[in-house]
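Replying to the earlier thread about multi-chain prediction with a worked example.

Input:
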Amino acid sequence: MRILLAEDDPLLGDGLRAGLRQLGFLVDWVREGEAAERELRAQSYAAAVLDLGLPLKDGMDVLASIRRSGITLPVLVLTARDAIPDRIRGLDVGADDYVVKPVDLNELAARLRALVRRAHGQPQERLSAQDVALDPAARSVTQAGVPVILSAREFDLLHALMLNAGRVLSREQLEQHLYSWGQEVESNAIEVHVHHLRRKLGSALIQTVRGVGYTLARELPKAR
Amino acid sequence: MKMPRSLQGRLLLLVLGLVVGVWLATAALTWIDVRHELDELLDGHLAQAAALLVVQQAAEIDEDHRGVDAPTLHRYAPKVAFQVFHEGRLVQRSANAPVEPMLEFTGRAADGFNTIAIGGTAWRVFATHGRERDVQVFVGEQVASRNSILWAVLRSSLGPMLLALPLLALAAWWAVRQGVAPLRLVGRALAQRSPQALQPIAMKGAPSEMAPMLDALNGLFERIAELLESERRFTADAAHELRTPIAAIRAQAQVALGAAAEAERRHALQATLQGCDRAARLVEQLLTLSRLEAGAEHALVAVDLAALARQVVADAAPLALDKQQAIEVDATAPCTVRGDATLLAVMIRNLVDNAIRYSPSGATVKVAVSNAQGVVRLALDDSGPGMSAADMARVGERFFRVVGSGEDGSGLGWSITRRIAAVHQAVARVARSQSLGGLSVEVEFPAEEMA
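Result:
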């Protein structure tokens, strides 16, 4: 899951990025408000963690601005401002969650996963398609109850497809889900990962929509 | 006499005391005046009666009348007595008059008014005699009867006032109570206030005498409200600023715990320590600032600012050398200011730290202390990036930081510098450095009065 972290404090930003990475997130870190807004407009993130006291452009202004533009990604506001009016304003402006520093990394990760799940209309923590089940918190996948070992990228790719079940994701969209800044993307990387997933989970799960991208088949085709 | 502690009691005591005093004085004056008039009038009557008796006796010295009592004609008659002597013999007397002469008159005739005691009763006696000196007349009147008239007069004129006194006291008590009612009202309003309620007391129709007190009280409320507000802001700001380093420490510690690779763990642990240092520095700065803002008294003594500057720069030099910066001091002549050495050292250290911290490596930092006709000036110049005019205007606001400096300062250093300067009545200014092109900070101390 790729998220944007907007935090101006170097130590905290570094810690959050490292911590969230350990918990399986792909983290892009910006240190000021204008960059945050630019990235949120340019890239497709699963969610954003936004500090309010950002230089150049206040976090609240960034939030209001992207919401006005119709960007609906889940935004978790992480701030030192704990006054009730601040919280209310934050939520009213368009934050999906409001967390006061300091925060436990596991809790932050859980909140982010919950936000992403809800944003995709998934009520359950565990995602499933056909006989494949995916647990985002444990980062584990099972097929017919049997654990399947996936690489981090394969897991992220499957996760993205499962979250967007019923929709077709283009190769570019999938790349954005799988790679943070500065990570070299091979031109056929997605095809390679899809190939590996099909080999591990069977070819019926991921379907290719020619010229558009990939989608997940929720039900097994009736074998008759 | 000890005055009551309550204003109401005090007023009541004064008013009633004065009323009673005036009343008693009136009574005394009336007594004296009436007594005098009464004495004149009754003495006149005595004299007249005596004269009549003398004339009568001279006209009819008659053996037949000797010892005959005068009839009792009036209820006052028993209180009046007379004796008529002819040639030393009692010839006529009233029933209540003794046989012996009221006054000794052997040898020579008695004359005029006398107050004597007959049978234990005080009598006012007028004595007179005929021209031949053979007739001696005494007319007496009981003094008590005069007093009873006097008392009757006093009773009728002052009695009602005596009766009115309790009513007057009650009325005065009520009036005084009404008069001090606004005070009670203010007292009650103040007593019912919560400690947070600091809005001014508004009293419609408050007496003008209370205006200075109310104004002073409201002024005090205003100052307390300002103090509380600044305190509240400070606490909120401080909490806000402390949360970030604490969040960083927590996150880094968790990263260290979860790190798979040794390098990652080391990095996170280093960052944790860094966060602790930063939080500690922040706490120290907050404490310094809060002590300064509390407006505590600082003992100001003669301090050599030049020596202090050399000391601080010597301490900070390693930091500058780490960044390959050139740092120099121009403070040779002693420059004495009245100040608190500890605070001044904190201020110079802040300024020097800032200059080093915000200037790139290879930059130059210059510290100078000079004395021009008693005006001591501390000047810091650096060749760093300086500040925009807008930033210069905002510098000194609590927690204001220059954006994009890449440094993790708290923005408190400047507030502290400003505060310390204010404690010393010194003025701190920021400008573009004329000599080095970066930032120039100047702190100017007031000229020392030669005492």
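Chain B has a mean pLDDT of 81.

Feel free to reuse this layout for your own posts.
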